[in-house]
Amino acid sequence: MSAAEEVVAEGHQAVEAVPKRAMTLGTTTSLVVLAALLIVPLFAKNFIIFQLTMLLIYGLAVLALNILTGGSGQFSLGQSAFYAVGAYITAVLMEQFNINYALTLPVAGVICFGFGFLFGQPALRLSGVYLALATFALATAMPQLLKLNFLEHWTGGVQGLVVTKPDAPFGLPMGQDMWLYYFTLVVVLAIYIFSVNLLRSRSGRAFMAIRDNEIAASSMGVNVALYKTLAFGVSAGITGVAGGLSAIAVQFVAPDSYNITLAISLFLGMVVGGVGWLPGSFVGAAFIIFVPNIAEGISKGLSGAVFGVLLFLVIYLVPHGARQVAIVSQQLIGKFKKN
């Protein structure tokens, strides 16, 4: 075996590839989940609807990170920075320029795409833990940058900005929370379908080739530098849209809301959901939203310790996250049908 073949073989063993059909749920399962997402809010209280909205928003942000890490193999602890930029763009455009909330989301996505693409340029020289540290520095610096004096007129400085929650258009008979939920659901579904098609496209295959082995991908003609920065840009753009949706849902933006804790939570959601499995992004989002509340319900004084124990159990029992549970469930259903 030649040296090049050995490198390719080692890279193939080091990273488990995700088959195309394993990126999404089956058609029947997808329809059942979609029906549940459409029906449940009709019978839920406003607080539950708000939590479901935040689940979709965090799921979108985790999905963006999944494209970057699960798709192209680049680790990032700086997603909270792009999330913050998207949130502030939406808040400033809505409150300072009176622009319709729906129109602010594409603007947030495009600007964050450019921000992420530019950040990806110097990050090309870094990989592994060094790239993670560089993105960690970005997440740490962002809250302080948003507090700068020359931006205070637009961002509100330390005090932040209050965002007006939109009413349902065309006189639709539904409250603000329900309308925002369905609006968020439409946006998330559109981006989810885009993400699935992206990873199944030529660009997606290039991402995964780079993830599996950069040297082999380069030898096959893949422009490694272009596709790595493109992955950063796409991930940042989607995260920016999620940040914009969060600003509308929470009705408030402030620098300290987008600290490193948020970045770690998104990374945790990706791991719990299963790296490279897009539906798992929303399972991971549910984990980071609901499990801390469960831990606090068990013990208010030791909620952090209880959360740590629950997280340890999840990682120990299902190291590949929700994706592993889905595969095992599918195998059990298959055996049951045969019997």
Automatic annotation (TrEMBL):
Membrane topology of the entry: Multi-pass membrane protein
Keyword Cell membrane: yes
Organism field: Bradyrhizobium iriomotense
Protein name in UniProt: Branched-chain amino acid ABC transporter permease
Entry keyword Cytoplasm: no
Localization terms from the record: Cell membrane
Swiss-Prot/TrEMBL keywords: Cell membrane, Membrane, Transmembrane, Transmembrane helix
Cross-referenced InterPro entries: ABC_transp_permease (IPR001851), LivM-like (IPR043428)
CDD domains listed in its UniProt record: TM_PBP1_LivM_like
Transmembrane region(s): 22-42, 48-68, 99-119, 126-146, 179-199, 230-254, 260-290, 302-322
Main location per the UniProt record: membrane
